[in-house]
Amino acid sequence: MSEQDTPTYAGPQRVFSGIQPTGNLHLGNYLGALKKFTRLQDDGWDGIYCVVDLHAITMPYDTGAMVSQTRQIAAAMIACGLDPKRSIIFAQSSVRAHTELCWVFNCIARMGWLEKMTQFKDKAGKNSERMSVGLFDYPVLQAADILAYKATHVPVGEDQQQHLELSRDIAARFNEQYEADFFPLPEALIEGPGARIMSLKDGTKKMSKSDPAENSRINLIDDADTIAKKIKKSKTDMLGDMPSDTGGFEGRPEVKNLVGIYGALAGMSDDEVLAEYGGKGFGVFKPALAELAVEHLSPITARMRELMDNPDEIDAALRDGAERAKAIAEPIMEEVRQTVGFWRP
Ligand code: AMP
Ligand code: TRP
Question: Using CA atoms, how far apart are residues 110 and 98, in angstroms rounded to an integer?
Fold first, then answer.
């Protein structure tokens, strides 16, 4: 955090992030988010990781699948290396502070700020009149998620940049309006090779849970054969072999993406990957990438399946996480109530 951003905020440094319990987690979620969570934990950060079920109901969803989807995200967090004893893992709807602070922030955020949000425009398309008010308000709830814990750092993929800027604007406006150095201005942690993983079928579109084409993404629960098949079938182009340097990515978004995935998994830069594979055919590169992906994902998949077969363990982690999350958020909410001027019993 740069001092210039939050000159007088002197509270503890704390990490917060959230993942929606909708659809299958994929390689983009892993490289853009989950892998970073684990690294931050291992670097000694206090982290709060939330399954954002309140966000998930802003769009049509399957009521009966929600519990299992929530467990699946928690299982993935644990399988990727989050330790529920060190980090807090919980479901958003089990801590009231999120919705309460969201309401206060609804009275801070301006319509014009929300009207600029590209995620709403993308999701609503031409039908914005028929979208839920919740979908429009989605980024305000996200700001409340983060700031209910006065979190200072937020690991996310690149698609969340604009939402994080809005969270900072809300925090700054609150501080200004109430003449309090109350909230930190949370900083997005986006940098890194996995910040934007693209579809395996179209290198200009991000890999997404909601893409109807199953072959466009690698799911965390795919078995080794499926992963290998999807990589083998991934789109490349007719422009020849692997380029020898990153200049050769020009006009080849799919190739750039595959090299980026390889690098993110292996901890190598694009240049290092191309030093090894430049000039080679995709018949060589794709099997190597498939092997690398399987090597990374199969222990995670196995652990996820094990946990999903034993929901008691997941539920215990979620229950304990909710209690610890409340213990942090409730005193902050009490201060918020006093700061905005409510009568207190
Ligand atoms: P979501 O699935 O939208 O709840 O996203 C959960 C996390 O994964 C967020 O931090 C996203 O920014 C991140 N994420 C989602 N898709 C991608 C992608 N294709 N590449 C990198 N990060 C992603
Ligand atoms: N909007 C995020 C996404 O779609 C999920 C999210 C909700 C989140 N609340 C958050 C991420 C708070 C970081 C911090 O990916």
Answer: 19
Nearby residues of 167 by Cβ (< 8 Å), 6 or more positions away: 139, 142, 143, 146, 147, 154, 186
Centroid of ligand 2 to alpha carbon of 271 (angstroms)? 31
**Domain boundary assignment for the chain:** 3-189+311-340, 214-306
Name the β-bridge partners of 154. 188
Residue 239 has what DSSP assignment?
S
24 pLDDT band (50/70/90 cuts)?
Answer: confident
Task: List Cβ neighbours of 235 (8 Å cut-off, separation of 6 or more).
Answer: 200, 201, 202, 203, 254
Active site residues: 123, 206, 209
7 pLDDT exceeds 70? no
- Average pLDDT over the chain, rounded to whole? 95
Residue 10 banded pLDDT, cuts 50, 70, 90: confident
Helix and strand element counts for the chain (H, E): 14, 5
Task: Check pocket membership of 206 for ligand 2, CB cut-off 6 A.
Answer: no
Task: Output the pLDDT for position 11.
Answer: 87
- Closest by CA position to 16, among listed 135, 121, 147, 122: 147
Please tell me what DSSP assigns to residue 199. P
Q: Classify residue 150 by its DSSP letter.
A: T
Cβ atoms of 63 and 23 closer than 8 Å: no
Shortest-distance ligand to the CA of residue 144:
2
Residues pairing with 206 in the sheet: 198
**For ligand 2, is residue 55 a contact (CB within 6 Å)?**
yes
Give the atom of ligand 2 at the shortest distance from the alpha carbon of 20: 5
Residue nearest to atom 12 of ligand 1 (CA): 157
Q: Which of 192, 193, 190, 218 is nearest to 289 (CA)?
A: 218
As a CATH number, domain 214-306 is: 1.10.240.10
Q: Looking at the structure, give the CATH architecture of the domain made up of residues 3-189+311-340.
A: 3-Layer(aba) Sandwich (3.40)
Q: pLDDT (tens digit, 9 = 90+) per residue, 257-278?
A: 999 999 999 999 999 999 999 9
Residues in the chain: 345
